[in-house]
Design brief:
Layout lengths: L8 E6 L5 H10 L3 E6 L4 H7 L3 E4 L25 E4 L1 H9 L3 E17 L15 E13 L5 E6 L6 E4 L4 E4 L11 H12 L8 H16 L4 E4 L4 H14 L3 E7 L7 H12 L3 E6 L1 H7 L6 H23 L4 E3 L4 H6 L1 E2 L2 E2 L12 H5 L2 E3 L7 H10 L4 H4 L19 H20 L8 E15 L2 E14 L7 E2 L4 H14 L3 E6 L13
Parallel strand pairs: 1-2, 1-3, 3-4, 4-9, 10-11, 10-13, 11-12, 13-16, 18-20
Antiparallel strand pairs: 5-6, 5-7, 7-8, 8-9, 14-15, 17-18, 18-19
Helix pairs in contact: 5-6, 5-12, 6-12, 14-15
């Protein structure tokens, strides 16, 4: 690993907070590299990582819970800056001899804090003005550890922030990483640059340049196979590898018959024609649809599609000749989710498009994007000159339209959904919403409703429209798109898609619902 973009690093120890990934994103937005690891990461690994600073995340536990998560106490004696957030601050207090107690009133939501001290953490803040912050805790600090001073307070938290300036250990009872703490970004900047002395070296231009160099060195003269889906992740992987090894890269694009309208043509035009890559289109749509005949159970659909994909992909890979590596678009959230905050679990989540292939084909994995969040992948795509339409493309599930057709999958039902989805996306783009929402798509429901068209009674299909706002798909809220846009979507679908006489809008959030319907 070269030294330039990883020169300054922050380690985030995760105590189970729902905001841990957001902390990492905020650090990365400041062009400082960071990694998330479970709270119980061994002290030896922490030392080997050699961070400039350590952030201790919040978490749902009370410090007095029977199985409360505790990090190795030696972390607090390393002499590097520590920032404890919410539970992280309570852990620091408890570990260093202070007193944590149940709060009289649980503090959740917006709160106002008063800054009491000219601490580096609050550098540039006006002490005469109260700051709005986001609180979420049931415990509070009653007595700070020896050597600490109180640097901020709120109505319910006599210790809203604390610091030991000599040891450079800081704690905040609120969440500076969330948007509800308006000046939280400045607190994190102060920690990264003023306290830890980091430099902004983590840029996607540098990442792309360095990754291409490292791929060239690692892969040597060996051949690489890349599963190309047309999505952002696999597209960026393909272009990185194309820059690194050129014609030693072979891409396989499997058309499973479950793609969106025009998708197959677009992929071939972009990568085979424009980039002159060695792309092999396998039209296996008849095979997939035959296997899916009569299947309505969502999990069976996924398993059939996954199994068939591996079979088709493996067969084509054998035809292409000997290769040593398989390239895959694993992202950092996939890596994080494979390790719970209570310790490592066995596998990366199973819904990767090419999950299972390395073991079956005896190939080594190449995962150039495994350190990146989705927004960073998009930035790399921009740096590599990929078309904006492709770089900003919304996520699309590996099993394709199969999880958006509830019930049996047939040619006729696929054509209905494709046509409706195409109109929906056109209207979302026309309203300048495509890049502002996380995902927008149509779902074909397994019910029919009565309608009237002209002078005739109809009994036809229902399309559900799903548009959501999200940062990382872990949580999502339904998008409040304008009524006139909803009206245009509904009118066009009903008037132009034969077999549809009703359109409904999904107003469910995640949780408790999921983004996809299956």
């Amino acid at each position: 690993m070269a030294d330039d973009i990883y020169r300054h690093k922050i380690l985030i120890l995760d105590f189970g907070s729902q905001y841990t990934q957001l902390i990492a994103r905020r650090v990365r937005e400041n062009q400082v590299y960071c990694e998330i690891h479970p709270f119980n990461l061994s002290f030896e690994k922490i030392q080997a990582f050699a961070p400039e600073g350590i952030i201790l995340s919040g978490g749902p536990s009370s410090i007095y819970d029977k199985e409360a998560p505790f990090a190795d106490k030696r972390v607090l004696d390393m002499g590097i800056p520590i920032l404890g957030i919410c539970y992280g601050m309570q852990y620091v207090t408890h570990a260093l001899g202070g007193v944590v107690a149940k709060a009289i009133d649980r503090e959740y939501g917006n709160a106002s804090i008063t800054i009491l001290d000219d601490s580096d953490l609050f550098h540039g803040f006006d002490k005469s003005i109260e700051e709005t912050v986001w609180m979420s805790h049931g415990d509070r600090i009653n007595h700070i550890p020896e050597g600490f001073s109180v640097i901020a307070k709120s109505k319910n938290s006599p210790v809203a922030a604390m610091a030991d300036s000599r040891k450079r250990i800081f704690g905040v009872q609120f969440h500076p990483e969330v948007a509800h703490t308006p000046n939280g970004h400045q607190i994190l900047k102060n920690y990264l640059f003023r306290i830890c002395g980091c430099e902004p070296s983590w840029t996607m231009a540098s990442f792309a340049k360095q990754t291409i160099k490292e791929l060239r060195e690692k892969l040597g003269n060996d051949r690489v196979i890349c599963g190309l889906s047309g999505g952002v992740d696999s597209s960026v992987v393909a272009v990185l590898l194309n820059e690194a090894i050129g014609d030693r890269l072979s891409c396989i694009f499997v058309d499973n018959g479950l793609l969106r309208k025009g998708e197959s043509r677009q992929v071939m035009e972009t990568f085979a024609d424009h980039y002159r890559m060695d792309v092999h289109l396998v039209d296996a749509s008849d095979i997939f649809l035959k296997k899916l005949e009569g299947v309505t159970d969502p999990e069976k659909k996924r398993k059939i599609i996954g199994h068939e994909f591996i079979s088709v992909f493996e067969k084509k890979a054998r035809e292409l000749g000997k290769a040593r590596y398989l390239a895959q678009g694993t992202l950092y959230p996939d890596v994080i989710e494979s390790v719970s905050f209570k310790g490592p679990s066995a596998t990366i989540k199973s819904h990767h498009n090419v999950g299972g292939l390395p073991e079956k084909m005896n190939l080594e994995l190449v995962e150039p994007l495994r350190e990146l969040f989705k927004d960073e992948v998009r930035q790399v795509g921009v740096e590599l000159g990929l078309p904006r339409e492709l770089v900003m493309r919304q996520p699309f599930p590996g099993p394709g339209l199969s999880v958006r057709i509830l019930g049996e999958i047939t040619h006729e039902r696929l054509e209905i959904l494709r046509a409706a989805d195409y109109i929906l996306i056109e209207e979302i783009r026309k309203a300048d919403l495509y890049e502002k929402v996380w995902q927008s798509f149509a779902v074909l429901l397994p019910v029919k409703t009565v309608g009237v068209m002209g002078d005739e009674r109809t009994y036809e299909n229902v399309i559900a429209v799903r548009v959501v706002d999200s940062l990382d798909a872990m949580t999502a809220d339904w998008s409040k798109i304008p009524y006139d846009v909803m009206s245009s979507i509904s009118n066009r679908i009903i008037n132009n898609v034969r077999g549809v006489n009703r359109v409904v809008y999904d107003i469910s959030s995640k949780p408790p619902s999921t983004i996809e319907w299956e």
